[in-house]
Amino acid sequence: MRATMRVRSILTTTVLGVALAVPAAVPQAVAAPGAAPFDTAAPAACDATDADIYAPPPATVQGEPGDLLACRPAKLTNVPGDVPMQAWKVRYVSTDVKGARNVVTGTVAIPAAPWTGDGSRPTVAFNPGTLGSAERCAFSKQLAGEYVDMYEGGNLTLFLREGFAVAATDGVGYLDGQVHTYMVGANAGHALLDIVRTSRRIPGGTLTADGDVGISGYSEGGAAALWGAQLAASYAPELNVAGAAAGGVPGDLKVTAKQLNGSLFAGFLADALVGLHAAHPEMPFTELMNERGARAVQDVRSHCLFGTLAVFLGARVEDFSTDRLTLEQIYALRGPGGVTWGEIVDRQRLGTGIGAPGSGARYEIGFPVFQYRGWFEEIIPHETEDATRQRYCAAGITTTWKNTYPTEHLTTDWAAAGDVTAFLRDRFAGKPAEGDC
Fold this sequence. Notes:
Blueprint: H1 2-12, H2 50-53, E1 68-73, E2 85-95, E3 101-111, E4 123-127, H3 139-143, H4 153-161, E5 165-171, H5 185-199, E6 213-218, H6 220-235, E7 241-247, H7 253-260, H8 267-279, H9 291-302, H10 305-311, H11 327-332, H12 341-346, E8 354-355, E9 363-364, E10 369-374, H13 382-394, E11 399-405, H14 409-415, H15 417-428
Parallel strand pairs: 4-5, 4-6, 6-7, 7-10, 8-9, 10-11
Antiparallel strand pairs: 1-2, 2-3, 3-5
């Protein structure tokens, strides 16, 4: 029974990575009271300590998105298969949902074998599935074996065996003293694109600016992948993105949250609420909490995957506020300027405002997209995954869709890994994609 619950726990982990879409703004400096300024000069060598990589953010974040702030060699013990490679932990500049500069961490891995394909070695920008919101849950720490509560090391093995470099972001909120901004898609999309820029600036690295880029992620990572795809043309137009693969995508947060509330997987609704508040501290939140709610915030901040699920098993959002607010009542709450939580959540719906190049859409996508889900998906409602694909088709984006994997949520991540790798391999080889809209 315990093993069954553990597997079901993993299944849900990436359920809520939907995004907060805002236009990329010119980055501004961010001040953290009491923190010291940070020297953003590119490091001459990758000789940072772990403490340097995950240090709290500086008083002033300077530099441009993608600038490398610090790096250190890493041995990726949780990437199976003994693929010869060079790997580094990295700390870099990105842009948050409000257009301000922030600091993000991640991992870059480059196969030791020479690239034998056409052109320069390509890079897969990868966002992991949900790992939890505490500092120790960072993907870069887990890949290096410092904490083990993740399940996608084998996915990276497939990319590396093909000769692709991997630039895997941790996402925003894994520096010391922070909490992961779990649901904020602009944060996720920017961080995913910026780590590709960073990967080309590593001392001793071999990646070049003309290499193709593929984007990949599943569930939380799938939502981040689509936000990277949607933001690429406006935020990182110099990147030659060849294609994006996104599976298990919770394209509409409201639809997903309704199903999670009171379920075995309610922990991820708690993660989502805390993550949104981390990005929008000006919105009503802390003052609404009862004693259980205040404790829940601390639980989110201190647990990774399995701990979160155990603590919040069967919980309802109504349990955490003094007035027993429902989801609909929370959506109606207003913050500064009259914006509601519901409006913030609605901005996260994937596939809104997209179009082909030259369409004048807010988010123009000029490369093919592969979307997928398992036939027995039991965590993310089918209607939101299917609707995201339909919106991409309606917008004229070349979209390949597969929902015939005989798998549920977690096992679809593994079952589709070969198809994802083949999809990106074909894009890097210049083969045209045939959509099936």
